[in-house]
Design brief:
The complex is a heterodimer of chains A (about 600) and B (about 140). Chain A has about 600 residues and is of the alpha+beta class. Helices cover about 50% and strands about 20% of the residues of chain A. Chain B has a 5-stranded parallel sheet with strand order 2-1-3-4-5, sandwiched between helices. The chains are: A alpha+beta (about 600), B alpha/beta (about 140). At the A-B interface, helix 7, helix 8 and helix 14 of A face helix 1, helix 4 and helix 5 of B.
Amino acid sequence: MTKAESNQLPNEEKQKAGHYSRLYRKFVFLTLISSLVPLLLVGWGIYIYYSDFSKDRLKTSFQNQVESHRKIIELFLKERTHDLQLVALNHKLEEIQKQPNLIRVLDSINREGQYFTDLGIINDQGKHLTYIGPYDLMDKNYSQTFWFKEVMKKGYFVSDMFTGFRGSPHIIIASLRIEGEKRWIIRASIETEYLRSLVENVKIGATGEVYLLNQAGILQTSPRFGGRIMDKAPLPIEQFREESGIRTLTLAGSNPTSISSKQIVAHAWMRDPHWLLVVKQEYDEAFHDVNHANRATLIFLHLSLLGIIIITAIITRTMVKTIEKRDLESEQLNKQLIQAGKLASLGELSAGVAHEINNPLAIILMENQVVRDTVDEFPELDADFKEQLIDSLSQIDSQVQRCNLITHNLLRFSRRTVSQIEAVDINAFLNEVIQLMANRAKGMGVHFNTNLEEGQKPIYSDPSQLQQVFLNLINNAIDAHEGKPYGSITISTRSDFQKQGVIIEVADTGSGIPKENLERIFDPFFTTKPVGKGTGLGLSISYSLINKLGGDISVQSVVGQGTHFTLFLPFNRPEDSEKNDEEHPGQTLMPESKKETKQ
Amino acid sequence: MKRARVLIVDDEEAFADNIAKLISKRGYDIKAVYNGQSALTALDEDDFDVIILDLKMPGMDGLTTLKNIKGKKPSVEVIILTGHGSMESGIDGIQLGAFDFIMKPVRFDELYDKIRQAYQRKLVHEEPVQGSPTDKE
């Protein structure tokens, strides 16, 4: 065997391994595509849809909050204005300008809460007639102030936050009373603290803030972060032209807590006064819950993804392993089938050949006899010549016998030989065979080990065919020790009740059989023995005999370590065997019986 | 002892002729025919003690010939020659009443022995028939 050939086998195995790993990758790829793509599409679709949906809902509720808050503030200011208008309508100047009366009025309008800081009655000249409150404003003249002009024109007025005479930011509400010819104004300032608390009632998380702006963008309340009352608002008022709205803005942080943050900003314009309510919160906080839920969804999605990948990998691996195993099994089965087919056709062929050869051989033998007879009829022949002739005729005779042996073997190998089925105690039988071979084995330095299972049930088989098989196996095993000083042959038996038969193993410690020969040892005429020493039929005959007896034979071998034959023989012979011998079990027609007839 | 009469039936003419030659030299009456049909014809014309019958022949095969022979002359001893090497057909032959079978190729001595045995048996079987008048009745 050349080097190139020996390299072919590993290559083939490598190719096979490549084939299975390609198969594995293909399966994994297809399974993943078909399972992950829909999962991801649905998962991401749901994620995007619900994320948008819940954000919209959140925004809407944010917006609603702003809206309702705007209404509260509007309502508050409206009610306060009504309070003053009511007071103005229900009192005459003479009464109300008396200090105790005004105190009573202030008390009654502050009955539900400390809405008003102070209260004053001002005449149409802008001079205070009466004033109750913490500031000293009696001598102030308001005739030139913007609100005085407005109230004289409109009848009532709600101011923006302004500093005024008192020097601190406040809002005033004023209402004009026309009492006959007299015109007077009742003016009150709103408790800034109260307004602030009203506005900041909208408490939104840790980062939320609410504030009011006037039309000019001046802060009407102090925001929680950045900016103070009466300052210019951090957001330009131009952004909030619509009635109401919501948007997200990325702001360069004007305060230490938000260096640069994404903010959600909702706003609503009040009608009277025309102020802007702004509610602002950091985006992340506002959408914390939604984001949290979304993250959970995504984590779940990706965990499922990972799970599918792992499961796919495992399942595919198992699947490919199974396929590999199946392939291997079918390959072995194929090999066996090919072997069986080969043997069957060779059996037919050799039977045919043997028959064709037998006839001429028979004629040769008869001619031989004719010549012998003729020689006897001529006694006057030269003695030397006669002797030579007889010698040659004997040689012809023995060579024909040799041919006869070969054809006989061939015919035995073919299926046409008859089995004699009887009960065989396999252990005793094997011991007999070992006895037969003991001398030859001893001569080669080989000893026998037996490991025979006790209490074996007898099998129904053909002892003479079995003997042929085992003699052959043992002969080969002994021959395998050629060149080795010593060795052993181990023969063991065990019952296999599942397969209803007995397993016989013949293992030797001989030279072993190379892999490339192992596949061919059951082929007829395959032999590694020198020419003339073996016909190459032994194992193929054994193979066909064992097959015919319903069993099977397999071989394993490691070069240098030995060869191990495993035979299986059924307890009972299969049904499809020849009926003749079952009908006439006593009629023995083996060569031995012929001898008996002779005697 | 009267001369035994032997019929050899084999499609291998050389083989049949050789055997005829060898047997007649040894003091038997022998006739060689080359197929089953002529064997039956020969049997009609003459009496034979032993028939050597090849199993595999063209035309009427050996077993059919054997059946017909046994139908005509049950007492004749038939030795089957089988070139098949197949014992099954030999066994079939014995079940049909053949004396024994011999596998080709066969040494002449062996065949000769077998013919003698067959003839002996024929004689043994015939003796009571010839010797006892009760059987004739």
